[in-house]
Amino acid sequence: MLGYALRRLGYGGLVILGVLGLLYVLFFLYAEPQDMAKRALGEKAPPEVLERWIHEHGYDRPWSEQLRDHYVRMLTFDFGRSDSDDVEISRRIREGAGPSLSFTVPIFVLGLGLGVVLSLFVAYFRETYIDRAGVVLAVFAMSVSVLLYIIGGQFLIGKLLNWFPISGFDPDPRVLPRFIALPIFIGVLAGVGGDVRFYRTVFVEETSRDYVRTARAKGCGDGRVMARHVLRNSLIPILTRVVTAIPFLFTGSLLIESFFGIPGLGALTVDAIHGNDFSTLRAMVYIGALLFIVFQIVTDFTYTLADPRVRLE
Amino acid sequence: MPGKPARSEPQASEARRPVLEVRDLVTTFPADGGRAAVVDGVSLQIAAGEVLALVGESGCGKSVTALSILRLVPRPGRVASGSIRLAGRDVLSLGVAEMRAVRGALGAMIFQEPMTSLNPVQTVGEQVVEAIRLHERTSADAARRRTVELFERVGIPDADARFDTYPHQLSGGLKQRVMIAMALSMRPKLLIADEPTTALDVTIQAQILELLREVRDRFATAILLITHDLGVVNELADRIAVMYAGRVAEEGTREEVLAAPRHPYTQGLLASIPSRARPGEPLAEIRGVVPSAGEWPKGCRFATRCSRVLDRCHDVPPEAIALSDTQRAWCHVVAREEGRA
Amino acid sequence: MEGYVVSNAVVVAVVVGGVFAAWAVRRSRFWSESFRELARRRPLALAAIAVYVLLGLADAVSWVGDAEGLEGVAAHQPRTLLDRAFPADFKERSYSAPLADVEFYGAAPLARPGAHWLGTDILGRDVLLLTLKGARVALLIGGLTSLIVIPLALLFGMSAGYFGGRVDDAVFFVISTLASIPHLLLLIALILVLGRGPVQVCIAMGITNWVGFARVVRGETFKLRELDYVQAARALGASEWRIVLRHILPNLMHLVVITFVLLFSGTVLSEAILAFLGIGIDGSWGQMIDQARDELARDPIIAWNLASASAALFGLILSVNLVGDAIRDILDPRTLRENL
What we know:
Radius of gyration of chain B: 21 Å
Shape of chain B: globular
Shape of chain C: elongated
Helix content of chain C: 55-70%
Number of helices of chain B: 14
Order of helices and strands of chain B: HEEEHEEHEHHHHHEHEHEEHHHEEH
Oligomer: heterotrimer
């Protein structure tokens, strides 16, 4: 087990190095320092000012030096300063993590719970009208663009019904729920269609297995069969899907934060896109990749808990 | 084939009242815009301490018959008509909760594939404990002790340690013993065994059959044994019912059916056993194929393949012809032979 | 070569390709039976997709000339078949409601009263025409991206799965690296680097999406390699590439079809998000939706822009999803459930 862990971590480390290499190629071989400086300082800035900015940001050094610097700094989490406004990136990230997590975590937890429960319900009634209707509804729900859920939700609930503010954010715990209620609701709604479609398929597949027949033959009621036998055997595909979603908890939802004015990591990324702020983008992509790799390894280990047949070696 | 020495008969009064009585069972599945009767009017009965072997080729409906008895037929199939009485109770009229109480306690079932029939993420001990605690209020400890005892009873060595193993860590034979232990945990009156040895090695087969024999003898459990293997039938059966295309073709005691079959299908089956052929001669076979559920022929279902077919056979389904107290055949040819055509 | 000539050539190629595909399907019993089953299960969705495809093709064929009512430069721009279904000088000055006679703000009379079934947008363009033209963009996104994803994934996946060893190590490493980067972020990064034209966006989406399918291809190829008839072919001395092309690839085709369909709806939806971020493709429904966002905040609200583009987008995605589900059930329920 320990050997496996070390090997996985080792390979993960290699992948990180690969990711960093790719990031370097993407961002810095294609981005002209002159353009970046102009964007930061304005088109009309005089050449010396531009040169100084370029020098301060280190974009005038030989590429091999920049490459080594890139690796060293990323691996030590020294992200430097934003290309657009010179604010320290690490600080921005720290400040943005809270607001992002405040709504992505509830979306994740509620979405998972709702998705699993609805899918169990629909799978329990498989081949009946409830199942067919459920599947069609799920496909309908997942065919609607996230954009439309957000716009529609904001319009209907925020404007027409005026139940919650359309946008805005206040970290004060007394008013925070009012601001994140609508984003959470919309986030869960947008995801439930695809989740139910996927989980239902997994559950129906498990329900047709032999051990379920044995469980019924010894007197298990259908409800118990679904909740105790089918669900436990479906954990691996569920875990896989769930874990790939975890990095998004941190990178935040770009769309939701933009539309709802939440000052999180997603908004940070969107600003970086609009401002062509490569340094910030590089940091965000790197963090996302890092989290993904870490959680992948974690998932592998949870597989052993979920299914005793899985042996990591 | 050589018979086995008879063992002591169960109590006369028990022998008279059958544990399982099935009458005119019809179970349908959807097919081609309608429903097809995969089991089409099957009647059987089994007394306590008796093994009835339900024999037939793949697709004749024997497994579905077994599943119907405990109302385990998978959707979209369903029992359409008929009556099933288990230890005097009318199974088809029971509510959901009552049925749950019957399954595993009054009637239990074991299946063909021990590999996939046990829940892979639970220990084998936990699964048997669940079977117990579904029907009785006992403490976890008491249930565990009972399970270990059951494991010993069915011949699982190192029973206490085995409690905590997972199915994939056990051999096929051991898994099947676990299934049997689980099925017997509540001392059911009826045990349905659907091809219990088909997936096992020959040597293990013999052991499992011996175990089933012990179950019959020691607990007077009625056993419905589903199989296509005539060797297994010879080892274990007291009575035999031969099924073809959803109906029973012939039934009788083991001696009657194996040594003196009357129905052309049974005769054909027995004749086609390879060990019966003489060296140098072609193997006997029944020409043609089994018709599928939606396409039952009118009249006797075996008519299209029967070597002794009469004109009547194509039009009129045969009635039961009693040949002795215990042997019956559904066949016009037999009727004619008995002078009852 | 003029842009519109390239576009016309592409249409011809697509039509020829379609005819060839239809012929190939008819020849194979497996594929024609599968198609018949699909048509039986989802006739409406298939019909809807056909309509979208026709609209898309109609908007891709264009030529210069016959511009009644236009003058100067505008008269010599190529106009598509779809454009020609509408009058040439169809623009108003600004917003107007569906079937209105007057402008939305100010009530000045329209150049063509009652002619705009779905009204006009802020620039006075007919919303119905814009919506219909969006079909071409959607088809371009889905089609071109898949054209990039599928060959890439097949090439790398089959190589890794069949040859194993170092080749597999290298491919698996590339796959792992790309797959670790959050989808949307990688997509955005690529677009910023490659540029914002339609072809570049499709290339970026191709690079982002090929990894998932490549993984599936690799897994399947591993399994196929062990099959008896493949071993037999090797024993008979067939060259490696021949084996791959004749024995492995045909057995992956059902996965290709399913992936193509599922990818289609995914990429079109992704483009809508890119449009919101300002890096989408011109003329797409996503862009229309993005531009129409603030119209809901006005009083009285302007909803027809948003409604029209949303309905068109939803209609296409729903049809493709329904067909995709049915295709997956028909062709191969198991493999994909575990992987896609």
